[in-house]
Specification:
By secondary structure, the chain is an alpha/beta fold. It has eight helices and six strands; from the N terminus they run E-H-H-E-H-E-H-E-H-H-E-E-H-H. Helix 5 packs across helix 6. It is globular. The site of farnesyl diphosphate (FPP) has 18 residues, from helix 1, helix 2 and helix 3.
Length: 246
């Protein structure tokens, strides 16, 4: 397999970075150590993404339901995210990465909210990769909010409602639907991540724990994606011609 795949695909890849806790526990470490190793994995994936044709990378870092975890783990995650944003902004700018954080901001600690705003402003000119980090994010909640916004403008048709919801869910007009959803850590579920945007996503599940996920694993997922036949509810190419000949 070539070391890189052709560019120009403009793929939107979403990742559920699962398995940090188990990775740490298996090594006799506290769970936050797994999240720290998870940040290192994320940095590797961000660095590898543009050469693999990925234009948009959406990663699930903290769900609305993750608030139920023990306070010590939640605090560690909030601290880690702030530390990451502070430390990584320069490397994101240099790598041409534009950062956007999706999800609620009203429940996060003030210093983290400030760091997000700083990171988003500093990276606004990035044009190699659009990195979307989902924090305090719930897809069902996002869809419900979009529906409310849309209801106030009384859209006249079902089609338009769909378009308004899709526009409202994207942080800007360049974000398309998800092409490939990757979940590490051996579980096979969506966990309230980008439900609308994944309507026709190809799904790729890996038993690898997120801290062990690397550029080679990402390359494998993308190579597998390129072997899939995407039909979006239609027929495979050639099927109509065959039918016509019968
Ligand atoms: C799921 O693994 C992972 C999370 C809830 C947090 C993901 C966070 C990171 C990768 C690091 C922080 C990210 C940024 C953007 C700085 P889990 O804890 O549920 O693992 P388990 O299923 O093995 O318990």
């Amino acid at each position: 397999m070539p070391s890189t795949l052709p560019r120009g695909e403009n793929l939107h890849v979403a990742v559920i970075m699962d398995g940090n806790g188990r990775w740490a526990t298996r090594r006799g470490l506290p769970r936050p150590a797994g999240h720290r190793a998870g940040v290192a994995a994320l940095r590797r994936i961000i660095a590898a993404a543009p050469a693999l044709g990925i234009a948009t990378l959406s990663v699930f870092a903290f769900s609305g339901d993750n608030w139920q975890r023990p306070a010590a783990e939640v605090d560690a995650l909030m601290w880690l995210m702030r530390a990451y944003l502070r430390a990584a902004t320069k490397e994101l700018v240099e790598a041409g990465v534009r950062l956007c954080v999706i999800g609620r901001r009203d429940r996060m600690p003030g210093p983290l909210i400030d760091e997000i705003a700083r990171g988003e402003a500093a990276t606004a000119g990035g044009d190699r990769l659009h990195l979307r980090i989902a924090l305090d994010y719930s897809s069902r909640e996002a869809i419900a909010c979009a529906a409310v916004r849309c209801a106030t403008s009384l859209p006249p048709s079902l089609d338009l409602v769909g378009r308004l919801i899709a526009d409202s869910l994207a942080d800007d007009s360049t974000v398309g639907e998800v092409d490939l959803l990757i979940r590490t850590g051996g579980e096979k579920r969506l966990s309230d991540f980008l439900l609308w945007e994944c309507a026709y996503a190809e799904l790729w599940f890996s038993d690898v724990m997120w801290p062990d996920f690397d550029a080679e694993a990402l390359r494998g997922a993308i190579a597998d994606f390129h072997r899939r036949e995407r039909r979006f509810g239609g027929l495979p190419p050639g099927a109509l011609a065959l039918g016509a000949a019968e």
